[in-house]
Write a structure and sequence with these properties.
With 261 residues, this protein is α/β, with parallel strands linked by helices. Helices cover 33% and strands 22% of the residues.
């Protein structure tokens, strides 16, 4: 099986006057994945994906990983250049069974409210319906219908501060692999909680809710549950807290579970 991984992350404060340009992105590009010193092998969840693919005797191709500190609108030219480079790397990789992505989920340009949804749409158009596209998101993202429509699996971190990036990467790999092997058929449903705020999971009440999410994942046919906190400093139509449930071929169960949570 052939896998491709890449990432693009920044968190856009639409109220900030400080733009995010291409020079603000720290970019790691294709290098020697056979080397133990390859920089991408030191970054979660890429390190986990590479190790798991190697253990399973799968071929993993890395495209690029670009991240920038939170600031104002991402320059349209910067986003388009990074998107084009990512899509070109996917094309150069040839036949792919699974795409694993690390995305923030709250990147905004002056022209595009939902950069990650746009990225996933462009990927789906390029790869077709049969390639499994899976993405790990920062919980401070804007979850959109365009993102849900063009990915097979989306999961977010459960912890804030983000102490579980590697663990969620392992979860994403396992679900994507099971999907590619036809062992499950993920369907995703979100429920809009009508909340805007900040919710550190180090507090007892939030840690209890994280435990509740993880307990819900033990129910039959429930593959993954995420609480999308949202990013309150992004003024976009899909801002706010969401519950995301990924179920195995049962949309009604996913919808019930999301509403109950």
């Amino acid at each position: 099986m052939k896998l491709f991984c890449a990432g693009l992350e920044t968190e856009t404060n639409t109220f900030s006057p400080i733009p995010t340009g291409l020079k603000d992105f720290h970019i790691t590009r294709q290098s020697d994945l056979s080397s133990a010193m390859d920089p991408i092998k030191q970054i979660a969840p890429f390190a986990q994906w590479l190790d798991m693919a190697s253990a399973d005797n799968h071929k993993m191709t890395f495209g690029l990983y670009g991240w920038a500190q939170p600031a104002g609108f991402t320059a349209e030219s910067a986003y388009q250049q990074l998107l084009d480079e990512l899509l070109a790397a996917v094309k150069a990789a040839g036949d792919i069974d699974i795409v694993l992505l690390l995305l923030h989920g709250a990147m905004v340009t002056q022209q595009i409210d939902d950069c990650e949804g746009d990225l996933l749409l462009r990927l789906r158009q390029q790869l077709g319906p049969d390639v499994v596209i899976a993405a790990e998101l920062d919980l401070h993202c804007h979850l959109t219908e365009q993102m849900l429509a063009n990915a097979d699996i989306l999961i977010s971190y459960k912890e804030y501060p983000h102490t579980d990036v590697a663990a969620r990467g392992v979860e994403l790999y396992q679900l994507a692999y099971a999907t590619a092997c036809k062992q499950c058929q993920p369907v995703m449903v979100q429920y809009d909680c009508q909340l805007i705020g900040m919710y550190p999971t180090s507090s007892p009440v939030m840690q209890e809710f994280v435990d509740t999410l993880m307990a819900a994942e033990q129910e039959k046919n429930i593959l993954s549950v995420s609480f999308i906190h949202g990013f309150p400093f992004g003024d976009v139509p899909d801002a706010g807290g969401k519950i995301l449930v990924v179920a195995d071929a049962d949309q009604q169960q996913a919808a019930r579970g999301a509403e109950q949570l």
